[in-house]
């Protein structure tokens, strides 16, 4: 299972209206720390398949959503449940941090 590509256009459908909690990785191609967490995000998409929707949003191509959620540095990962931000992870962190926060949803 690959992470879902989230855009300004599909954000409401894929995230706000999602029946599952959603983890969104706000990233950019030029961002070094984003590349460090990319494999972790891919693993989470497999491990949490059916329990949590895992998505990636390219901030260069989807600035409206990044601005709306106050994303000022990347990588920023938002955990959204029921249309509300429940948690935020900023920067490259180890996989266990993501797993703990996902399990607490």
Brief digest:
Helix content is 36%, strand content 26%. The protein contains 4 helices and 5 strands, in the order E-H-E-H-E-H-E-E-H. The chain has helices at residues 11-16, 32-47, 63-68, 95-104, and strands spanning 4-5, 22-27, 53-58, 76-81, 84-90.
Would you kindly provide a written description of the structure presented here, covering whatever features stand out?
This protein has 105 residues and is of the alpha/beta class. It has one domain (4-104): Glutaredoxin. The protein is built from four helices and five strands, in the order βαβαβαββα. The chain has helices at residues 11-16, 32-47, 63-68, 95-104; strands at 4-5, 22-27, 53-58, 76-81, 84-90. A five-stranded mixed beta sheet has the order 1-3-2-4-5. Strand 2, helix 2 and strand 3 (53-58) form a beta-alpha-beta unit. The longest helix has 16 residues, at 32-47.
